[in-house]
Amino acid sequence: MSVMRNPFDAGGYSLAEMTEAINILPNLYTRLGQLGLFEFEGVSQRSVIIESFEGVLSLLPSVSWDGPATVAGRENRVMRSFALPHIPHDDVIRPGDIQGQPALGSNQPDTLAAVMNRKLMLIRRKHAATREYMEVNALRGIVKDGAGTTLYNYFTEFGVAQQAVDFVLGTATTDVQAKAREVTAKTEDELKGETMTSVHVLASSGFMDKLLAHKNVREAYQFYQAGLQPLRENVVRRFPFMGLMFEEYRGSVTLFGGATESLIPAGEAIAFPLGTMDTFKTYGAPANLLETVNTIGQPIYARQALDLKGRWIDIMSEANILPLNKRPRLAIRLHSSN
């Protein structure tokens, strides 16, 4: 296929130009993206190797001045390789997309540049939603692709069990403060050399309803809510309680195939630390192109090509990303058994 001229300017087209264009288009801001939990890191290969070990720091004893020094023990390191999934998505511009079509909000004819920009924005939003879905599931320990297919179970990969706290919100006498302290304690105990600044909770509507209606929480929430002027503002339900920031997250996605899935399962919540150094990463591999071999991966790639007979323009995009939760026990499942 021959490459057409860039519709955004009078110069020639290049992969770099169009990839930059799609990466700077307005993002479909998603909650994990806003929190900056999964830091993006480009790699030059199609897989990443993670070296895991327990970074536990033990104290050093004093010895006599002429005595032998203590000797560091050998760390129990395990190497694991993870292949980065390839996620391509294409679109096309045909003459009928432009011919006789008025521009949005105008009586003037549409332009190739405007149509291309709308196509790129839609592609960008699809990739953003896919990344959010993958990162939320990776946070919960089992990363999936946009079809709902499990790619990796990080609990199995790292040989650990998921941590969970039952808030028992259906019982009026439950000490909810103690449950919140248990979440913080479990998180701090599992850091083992990591750092954090706070613990955040993304909660389904059902879990949030039960939490805020519990008699040991309701009064505190009412005092907090009074300061937000809720009658004048459309306030997302967020509530700091015993060192945890609870936030309702109603996000859902339409999977490839048409099924709808909530990002946080009904009646559940997920607690996780913010401010970690290296626990949550999204790795990106280079595009599946000769010109990007051994280069550092970008979040999204886009390119265009004109049909040899001038009948359409192919718009091709891809993301080669894998969100990795290297310490899956740091993300704690919250639920209520009644």
Describe it for me?
This protein is of the alpha+beta class and 338 residues long. The chain is built from 7 helices and 18 strands. It has helices at 15-24, 31-35, 112-139, 154-158, 176-191, 205-213, 215-226, and strands spanning 39-42, 47-52, 78-83, 87-93, 142-144, 150-153, 164-166, 198-203, 238-241, 244-248, 252-254, 260-262, 268-274, 280-284, 301-306, 313-319, 321-325, 332-335. The strands form 6 sheets. A 6-stranded mixed sheet has the order 7-18-13-8-10-9. Strands 1-14-17 form a 3-stranded mixed sheet. It has a 3-stranded antiparallel sheet with strand order 4-16-15. The longest helix has 28 residues, at 112-139. The protein is globular and about 80 Å long.
Topology at a glance:
Blueprint: H1 15-24, H2 31-35, E1 39-42, E2 47-52, E3 78-83, E4 87-93, H3 112-139, E5 142-144, E6 150-153, H4 154-158, E7 164-166, H5 176-191, E8 198-203, H6 205-213, H7 215-226, E9 238-241, E10 244-248, E11 252-254, E12 260-262, E13 268-274, E14 280-284, E15 301-306, E16 313-319, E17 321-325, E18 332-335
Parallel strand pairs: 1-14, 7-18, 8-10
Antiparallel strand pairs: 2-3, 4-16, 5-6, 8-13, 9-10, 11-12, 13-18, 14-17, 15-16
